[in-house]
Structure formats: structure tokens, C-alpha cells
């Protein structure tokens, strides 16, 4: 055994580092954090803010192995990542493995290269407790916010909801943007574009310098232009430059990978992690745009050899953000000699990083911008044509140009023909087009990251998990918004004739942008009404600044926690006691058939429409909203349409047919089979013929594609991807198989492997009791229904072996279950039978809209 034990975070990194350090070092991985706050319970003493860390169940075996390795080593090198999270991992390892200061060394490096590793070994330090405390403060504060705010949501809205310091602010941004879009009133104006010809019949595209608010004003201008002689009034040429952007930080990498490659934030960070661990790039979580002198020299050498000395312009960038963490480098290649790598997906991101870093060290692009003014002294305003020519491409040679989502689609930057002042031009066409102002765009992942960074909310390590969390919680999603249609007027002047047409224009459609869900809006409104301080953008940014101060040693973390909690907890108690329940209730109007009020609100299973009041003698009737509808915008007419569902059609092949909408969207029900109606299709439009077509499509899709041991095999696509089904067994089909053309041997191979896996899955099984002992990823466990339970140790404090578990009795297994869940086998009381509610009720003679109940406002501090 080596005298030196090195502990890193990931196995991929361990493998790379082992190669550089050789036989005198044994490199092992901690697989991230080895301990954390407990999953159940808060795990924090709120009197002293002392955390109760515990080794997670899946890490106990690993910790035992690391302890054994520590005993055999003379020196332990803690080599976790160079950030607060990495520092905390090193501290947890030192504490849990009982490492003495004289037998441990902390080393850090921002790239996994031989030089960087050996340099780190030569320059060890001790654990930086300030960085550890900053991470502890973040972890504890976020746990407290989540654990104290979430139960308030359960009580005031519905069970199962959660709140978080950063996630709730991210949701607020998306909700506020959506409300801004809904409240936006588009304003129309007429924009004029002209195409003019010079003597050489070359086209010059120009725009009028002024827009017209009224159609008649635009028409009057065109009438005047019809008889006007157009001239070149002025030609102005200006030299200009374009400067390369700084090298990537975590945030800018996420934004650019989204714009150029279409990668989401989580995917970008996953690929960047792999590139780092395999030694291709420097550390991928950084706020810094700084480059080391070694990197600047490496880039200069590569640029000079590949493009020429005139393209090289070495420079260093300074980080503008005052909150930038630790002295990291920007994200860059570790070796500029490596221009590409073998893995296609990794290579796309690597190329982006490589070219961005090279471009940052290259000369500015030189351009020549030309502006031509076209018009006549008797006709105002004038037209203007803009164009530019790249004189020297500079950094563009490596990086090119990409537009951001905020830039206008129209681009005036084009090559213009040579003209002289006073030269007469003729118009080919002049067109006045009605244009409507647009609201702010919905957030893409990149746009949301940019906004969070701009507000100082979160840090590089938090963006990806925050965005993933708000989607997992179903507070936001990326559902497609179908465009609407409106009429626009277009007036054209060509060949001395003015022609007016009315065209249809699509607007308001969106794809791959964040929208709040109904529950997301209700939760956000409740939190902003009752926890203004926590949801305040400035407060969230100030908390981040406090973490930075703790990391720098300028603030004590427990004092910061005490100050925060002294204000936070009383507010929790106040809201829990005094705030009204929230369900997003919106009164739409009155049902003309029954005279009852129609409400849109959140119910137990999500957004719904309710006809009637809960306190009425006759119970209300309910209908679920369809995909694309939400309680904030649905109209009374749209809501009443939902009560036409479900409806029955004629039988088909001896089985009943109906159309309805459920938790998973609209469906055709054929006998006991539910068949989803294709996305975007209105269920109310499904007639007998269409229903039978949908049933036929389902039958065709479910038809056997082969047999296995005389039994039919079918295939389909579910929420986890393509599968084949044999008896009651579902078998996932990996990408290496051609799903559309599965051969019999493919099917045999897939089912054989699945059956073998299933055979090895159960150690013992009691089907009637729904109890089993199964082999799991982390070892054997007990399963009862859908719940999983640990297998306790034997009386001699040793673990059960697989063979021993085959002989354990059912009674013994039941005891293991009740030791962990005393109520596991308690008889559940059957709920009282509910009276069926009908879809229609007798119409009342009077039609009254009940007055909204005046809500008691939450008490304020």
C-alpha cells in the first residue's frame, strides 16, 4: 500500500490523477459529499445553529473503505475541488476520517494536468475554514427556509409543495414576466422600407427614419413619394472595431452553449464536468475571466502558428462582478495544442470553449460602416441605408458572430454599392407595413441564468440545480404556446401605383421558453404576499454577499444565521396563524344553465373549473383544465365547454366509446382502454369517425411485432422511452438497437436479459403479502408495496449475506418493517362512500353572482 493517499471527488478524476502521480500515491474518490444534513427532519439545532451531519446510507460502505485506506497511509492529501463546496467536502472527510492536522494536507488545482497536480503537491495548505463556513451557512440557511416555509404551503395551498430561497425567486422572475406579457397591450405603427436603384441598377435597401402611428399618415407619405425624385443626400463612412468577448465563466458558458449549441444548463454542466475530469479544460465553476500567464502564452503560440502574428493580441480581462468567488481562472483549454477530442458530444462544447478562449487573445476586427441618407428636401422624413464591410476579421476568424435572443431579427449590416452625394435614385418599391410592439420575451434557460447573475442571485454552482428544481417541482415548464392570428395592413408603392392588402399575421407563439404553471403562480403569489422579504431580489442578493463575507473571513457565520432567523421565524409563525388559504380562485361569471357561479382554481389534482359553491346544499361540479389552459386566463365560455366532457359515442366492436379529459390530458376511452388524443387536437372536435381512427391507430401500435416462447410481444413508447412488452413485463430498448426494425434475435436478446435480471432481483418474494427481499444497487433491501426498508444487522453486528437472506422467515421480515414503520400493517379505515355528483343540476330561477368574501389580511410585523 502507498504511503500517500489522495482523495478526490469523482472516480473519473481519480483515474486521471493516478496516471500523473504514479505508484507512490493511491488515489481514491469520495463520490462527492460523504455526509450531509439528514434527509428526514431539519437536522439543525436552532438554538446554536449546530448541524447534525450524518453519513448517508449509500456512503457508509465507502467511508469504511476510506477509513481502512487511511490507516495504511502516512499522509492523506485532500484534493477536492477548488471552491466552497470542495472545501466543505475536504472538511467533512477530515472530520469523519479522524484525520490529524499533521497527517493531512489540502491541495487544490484548477486543471487536471501533470504540471498542475505536481505543483499542487509542492504547495499544500490546510483546510480554509472560512470557505467551509460559507458553504455551511448556505446549506443551513437554505434548509431552514425550505423546512419552515414548505409546511406553510402544505397548510395554506396543498400538500407536497416546497419553497426555497433561490428557487422561489427564480419562479418569481418567470411569473412576473408572464404577467407582464398578459397585461401588455400591443401598439400598432407603420414602418416604411424602400428599395432604391442607382444608375447601375444595383439595389439599396433603406428604412424610413420615422414610423407613422396612423394608416392615413403612411398612405399620405406614399402618395407624396410616388412623384418625388429621390437623391443621395449624404454618404458617411466611419471606421470601427469589434472586440472579442472575455473567456468563459460558468454563467457565460451556459448562455453561449444554449445560444450556439441548443444545450440546456444541466447538460452543459454535465459535459463541462466530464471535460474537466478528463483533463481537457480548467475548473468549470468560476466567476472569473482571468487567464494565467501560462494560458496567455499558450494561446499566443497557437494563434501565431495557425493564423499569423497579426492576429495575436495578448490581453488579460478583469472580473467586473464584486461578488466573484475565489481566485479561479476562466474556463479554458488546458492545452491549446489539443484542437479537438474524440467524443462528438464533448467535442462540441470543447470547441466552443477552445475558440472563445483563442478569440479573447486575438486582435480586434476592423470594420468600415457606411450610412447613406436618401430623400428629397421636399419630403420628410428621409430614408437611411446602413451597411458595413469587414476590413480585417481578427478574432472573428476563430469565433464568428452569433446573435443573442434580445437582438432584432432584422439586420441592416450588409454591403452597400458605391454612390455619390447628389446621385439620383429611383425607387423600386416602398412598403408601409403595420407592425405591433412586442412584450418582453419569456425566459430561456440562458436568459434566466443571465438575469439571476445580473441580480446577484445564486452563484455558478447553483444555476443548474435551481433551474432543474423549479421544473421538477412543476412550478414552471416549457410547454409550447400556439400562436394567435391577427390582421395587418400592408400598403405598397410600385410602378407609380399604390396597393393596399390585409394579411394574416401569426403572433404570440413560443417554444422552449419558461412559463409558470397554475400551481407555480399560486405558490408565487402566496409567497410574495406573505414573505416579501425572502422573495425580494435585493434580499436574496444581500444573503449571497453575506456568504462572500463569511468566505473572506469578514463575518461570522453563526452570527449571520442568528440575525436572519430572528426575523424569519416570527414571520413564519405569523403567516401560519393568520394568512388565508390560497387556491388562485378566480370568479369567471355565471353558468347560464344553473345560475351558479363559475370559478377557476387549484384543486387537489391541479387546475380545475368549479360550478357552484362548496357551502351550497347541492355539491359543486368540477372539470379539469386542458393542456395549454390556465386559471389566470381561461374565459367563462372556454370553462363551460369543459363540462361537455366526457361524452359518449356509439359502441365500436362491441365496446363502449367515450371522449374525456383526465390528469394526463384528453383521451378516447374504448372499453377499459384509455387512448391519448394527439397533442394539439381539441377533444370536443372528436366525432365517431375520428374516435375510430384513433382506436385503429392504437390497435396498430399495440399489434404484436413478434413472439417469444409462443407469447405475443408488442412495442410502444412511454415516459421512459421505447419499450417492448412480453406478458406483463416491460423491457426498455436501448439506443444501440434500431427500434423501428427490431429483429427476432434482438427481441430474444432483450427479453432474455430482462428475465435474467428479474430472476436475480428477488432473494425471496411473498406475492400475496406484497413483500419481497430484493437485490438493489447498494445491496439487498426489503420492499413492502412501494415502500423500501433497510435490512438490519444480525445480533453479532454483522451484515446478512445473500444466502442467509434466503432462509429468513416472513414473520422476521415483517418485524424489520414494523421496527422502521410501526403503522406499516395497521388497517386503513375505508373512506365513507361519496354521493356521485352529476354534471348538470336543476337551473335556479335567480342568477346571482356571490360577492367575494373579504379576506383577512396576514398580520404584518
TrEMBL record:
GO terms for biological process: DNA topological change. Its EC number is 5.6.2.1. Residues 128-573 form the Topo IA-type catalytic domain. Keywords: DNA-binding, Isomerase, Magnesium, Metal-binding, Topoisomerase. Residues 852-861 have a biased composition (Basic residues). Residues 838-851 have a biased composition (Low complexity). Pfam families: Topoisom_bac, Toprim, Toprim_C_rpt. Residues 3-112 form the Toprim domain. InterPro entries: Topo_IA, Topo_IA_2, Topo_IA_AS, Topo_IA_cen, Topo_IA_cen_sub1, Topo_IA_cen_sub2, Topo_IA_cen_sub3, Topo_IA_core_domain. CDD domains: TOP1Ac, TOPRIM_TopoIA_TopoI. Gene3D superfamilies: 3.40.50.140, Topoisomerase I, domain 2, Topoisomerase I, domain 3, Topoisomerase I, domain 4. The record marks 33, 138-139, 142, 154, 285, 473 as: Interaction with DNA. Signal peptide: none annotated. Residues 827-861 are annotated as: Disordered. The keyword Magnesium applies. Transmembrane segments: none annotated. It catalyses: ATP-independent breakage of single-stranded DNA, followed by passage and rejoining. One of its GO terms (molecular function) is DNA topoisomerase type I (single strand cut, ATP-independent) activity. Monomer. Releases the supercoiling and torsional tension of DNA, which is introduced during the DNA replication and transcription, by transiently cleaving and rejoining one strand of the DNA duplex. Introduces a single-strand break via transesterification at a target site in duplex DNA. The scissile phosphodiester is attacked by the catalytic tyrosine of the enzyme, resulting in the formation of a DNA-(5'-phosphotyrosyl)-enzyme intermediate and the expulsion of a 3'-OH DNA strand. The free DNA strand then undergoes passage around the unbroken strand, thus removing DNA supercoils. This is DNA topoisomerase 1.
Amino acid at each position: 500500500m502507498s504511503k500517500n493517499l489522495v482523495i478526490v471527488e469523482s472516480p473519473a478524476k481519480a483515474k486521471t490523477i493516478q496516471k500523473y502521480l504514479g505508484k507512490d500515491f493511491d488515489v481514491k474518490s469520495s463520490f462527492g459529499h460523504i455526509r450531509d444534513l439528514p434527509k428526514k427532519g431539519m437536522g439543525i439545532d436552532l438554538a446554536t445553529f449546530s448541524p447534525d451531519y450524518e453519513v448517508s446510507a449509500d456512503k457508509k460502505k465507502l467511508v469504511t473503505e476510506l477509513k481502512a485506506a487511511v490507516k495504511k497511509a502516512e499522509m492523506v492529501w485532500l484534493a477536492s475541488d477548488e471552491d466552497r463546496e470542495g472545501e466543505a467536502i475536504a472538511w467533512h472527510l477530515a472530520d469523519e476520517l479522524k484525520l490529524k492536522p499533521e497527517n493531512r494536507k489540502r491541495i487544490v488545482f484548477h486543471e487536471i494536468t501533470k504540471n498542475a497536480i505536481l505543483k499542487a503537491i509542492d504547495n499544500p495548505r490546510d483546510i480554509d475554514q472560512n470557505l467551509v463556513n460559507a458553504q455551511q451557512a448556505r446549506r443551513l440557511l437554505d434548509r431552514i427556509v425550505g423546512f419552515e416555509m414548505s409546511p406553510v404551503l402544505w397548510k395554506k395551498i396543498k400538500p407536497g409543495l416546497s419553497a426555497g430561497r433561490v428557487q422561489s425567486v427564480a419562479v418569481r422572475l418567470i411569473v412576473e414576466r408572464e404577467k407582464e406579457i398578459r397585461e401588455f397591450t400591443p401598439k400598432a405603427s407603420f414602418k416604411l422600407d424602400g428599395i432604391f436603384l442607382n444608375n447601375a441598377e444595383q439595389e439599396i435597401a433603406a428604412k424610413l427614419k420615422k414610423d407613422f402611428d396612423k394608416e392615413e399618415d403612411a398612405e399620405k407619405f406614399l402618395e407624396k413619394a410616388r412623384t418625388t425624385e429621390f437623391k443621395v443626400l449624404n454618404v458617411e463612412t466611419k471606421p470601427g472595431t469589434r472586440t472579442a468577448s472575455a473567456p468563459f465563466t460558468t454563467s457565460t458558458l451556459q448562455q453561449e452553449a444554449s445560444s450556439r449549441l441548443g444545450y440546456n444548463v444541466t447538460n452543459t454542466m454535465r459535459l463541462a464536468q466530464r471535460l474537466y475530469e478528463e483533463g481537457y479544460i480548467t475548473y468549470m465553476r468560476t466567476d472569473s475571466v482571468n487567464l494565467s500567464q501560462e494560458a496567455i502564452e499558450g494561446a499566443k503560440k497557437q494563434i501565431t502558428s495557425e493564423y499569423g502574428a497579426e492576429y495575436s493580441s495578448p490581453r488579460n480581462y478583469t472580473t467586473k462582478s464584486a461578488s466573484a468567488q475565489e481566485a479561479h481562472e476562466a474556463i479554458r483549454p488546458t492545452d491549446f495544442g489539443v484542437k479537438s477530442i474524440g467524443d462528438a458530444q464533448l467535442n462540441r462544447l470543447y470547441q466552443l470553449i477552445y475558440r472563445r478562449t483563442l478569440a479573447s487573445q486575438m486582435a480586434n476586427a476592423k470594420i468600415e460602416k457606411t450610412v447613406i441618407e436618401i430623400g428629397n428636401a421636399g419630403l420628410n422624413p428621409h430614408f437611411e441605408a446602413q451597411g458595413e464591410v469587414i476590413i480585417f476579421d481578427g478574432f472573428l476568424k476563430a469565433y464568428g458572430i452569433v446573435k443573442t435572443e434580445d437582438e432584432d431579427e432584422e439586420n441592416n449590416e450588409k454591403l452597400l454599392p458605391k454612390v455619390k452625394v447628389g446621385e439620383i435614385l429611383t425607387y423600386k418599391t416602398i412598403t408601409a407595413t403595420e407592425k405591433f410592439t412586442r412584450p418582453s420575451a419569456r425566459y430561456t434557460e440562458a436568459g434566466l441564468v443571465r438575469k439571476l447573475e445580473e441580480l446577484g442571485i445564486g452563484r455558478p454552482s447553483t444555476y443548474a440545480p435551481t433551474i432543474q428544481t423549479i421544473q421538477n417541482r412543476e412550478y414552471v415548464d416549457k410547454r409550447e404556446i400556439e400562436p394567435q392570428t391577427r390582421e395587418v395592413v400592408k400598403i405598397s408603392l410600385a410602378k407609380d401605383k399604390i396597393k393596399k392588402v390585409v394579411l394574416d399575421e401569426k403572433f404570440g407563439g413560443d417554444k422552449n421558453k419558461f412559463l409558470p404553471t397554475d400551481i407555480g403562480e399560486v405558490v408565487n403569489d402566496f409567497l410574495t404576499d406573505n414573505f416579501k422579504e425572502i422573495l425580494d431580489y435585493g434580499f436574496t442578493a444581500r444573503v449571497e454577499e453575506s456568504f462572500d463575507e463569511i468566505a473572506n473571513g469578514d463575518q461570522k457565520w453563526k452570527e449571520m444565521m442568528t440575525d436572519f432567523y430572528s426575523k424569519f421565524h416570527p414571520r413564519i409563525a405569523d403567516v401560519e396563524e393568520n394568512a388565508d388559504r390560497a387556491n388562485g380562485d378566480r370568479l369567471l361569471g355565471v353558468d347560464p344553465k344553473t345560475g351558479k357561479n363559475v370559478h377557476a382554481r387549484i384543486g387537489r389534482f391541479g387546475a380545475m373549473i368549479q360550478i357552484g359553491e362548496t357551502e351550497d346544499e347541492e355539491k359543486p361540479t368540477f372539470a379539469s383544465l386542458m393542456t395549454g389552459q390556465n386559471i389566470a386566463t381561461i374565459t367563462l365560455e372556454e370553462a363551460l365547454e369543459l363540462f361537455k366532457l366526457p361524452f359518449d359515442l356509439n359502441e365500436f366492436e362491441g365496446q363502449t366509446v367515450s371522449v374525456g379529459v383526465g390528469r394526463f390530458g384528453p383521451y378516447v376511452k374504448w372499453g377499459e382502454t384509455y387512448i391519448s388524443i394527439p397533442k394539439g387536437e381539441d377533444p370536443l372536435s372528436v366525432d365517431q369517425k375520428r374516435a375510430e381512427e384513433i382506436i385503429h391507430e392504437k390497435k396498430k401500435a399495440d399489434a404484436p411485432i413478434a413472439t417469444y416462447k409462443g407469447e405475443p410481444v408488442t412495442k410502444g413508447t412511454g415516459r421512459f422511452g421505447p419499450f417492448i412488452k412480453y406478458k406483463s413485463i416491460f423491457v426498455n430498448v436501448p439506443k444501440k438497437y434500431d427500434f423501428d426494425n427490431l429483429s427476432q434475435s434482438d427481441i430474444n436478446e432483450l427479453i432474455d436479459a430482462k428475465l435474467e435480471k428479474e430472476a436475480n432481483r428477488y432473494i425471496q418474494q411473498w406475492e400475496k403479502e406484497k413483500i419481497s427481499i430484493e437485490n438493489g444497487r447498494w445491496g439487498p433491501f426489503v420492499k413492502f408495496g412501494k415502500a423500501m426498508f433497510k435490512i438490519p444487522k444480525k445480533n453479532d453486528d454483522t451484515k446478512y449475506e445473500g444466502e442467509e437472506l434466503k432462509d429468513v422467515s416472513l414473520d422476521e421480515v415483517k418485524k424489520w418493517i414494523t421496527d422502521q414503520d410501526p403503522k406499516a400493517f395497521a388497517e386503513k379505515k375505508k373512506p365513507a362512500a361519496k354521493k356521485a355528483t352529476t354534471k348538470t343540476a336543476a337551473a335556479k330561477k335567480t342568477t346571482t353572482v356571490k360577492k367575494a368574501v373579504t379576506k383577512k389580511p396576514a398580520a404584518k410585523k
